[in-house]
Structure of Carbonic anhydrase:
Amino acid sequence: MAAVAPPATFPRLAPLGLVSPGVCPAGDEVWASLLSSNALFATAGECPPADGVSVAHRASLVVGQSPSAVVVTCADSRLSPELLFARGLGELFVIRSAGNTSADDSTVASVEFAVKNLGSPLVVVLGHSSCGAVAAAVATAADPKAMAEQPPTLAAFVKSVLVAPVVAVKQKRGGVTGDDFMAACEVENVATSVRTLLTSSGWLAKARVAGTVKVVGAMYDLATGLVSEC
Ligand SMILES: [Zn+2]
């Protein structure tokens, strides 16, 4: 299947520039397969194959799992990695939180577990359009009291984790406004999460350089249903 062009609303990320990625053919193959399935999901509504959720398949997974990819993504109900990549039980190792961050140890440890012990050759940090967590960060960056009515843990999380990418976009792309600014913040939030993951886990960074795992940042467009690498 032909490569899917990234949505115009998602400015491409600057190179991460942390480590030189190694060549990971297994990760490349899985990523190409996921994007191909996503294109069918977006255009034809393809769902996970029936045998991927069958009673027999479920029974076969009792003894273990070998997911082909790890997906770190947002908790937003409008996206589900298994649906948008048309994958069944046991195929994706999914870690979700508001704003698809890698800021806490449980996320980093979960990624390490899947790559080391389950053999996943691909880690995808997946952000999305119209992300409420990023919108909260944009509001907080403009007005520190914007989250004053919210529960304190939520407000503190937005302030301590999610505002930094917004500030970075303001510094790098000062003239961008409106929807373009929001899209740039969503992409920068993914980039920040990838960087955090690789700086928090020296083990994962080494595995990436060694070519045993591929790490990519990507965006999901709610309107088109398409995932694009960023
Ligand atoms: Zn979100």
Notes: The beta strands are 69-74, 92-97, 122-128, 214-220, 227-229. DSSP finds eight helices and five strands in the chain. Helices lie at 25-44, 55-60, 81-84, 105-117, 132-142, 152-172, 178-200, 202-210.
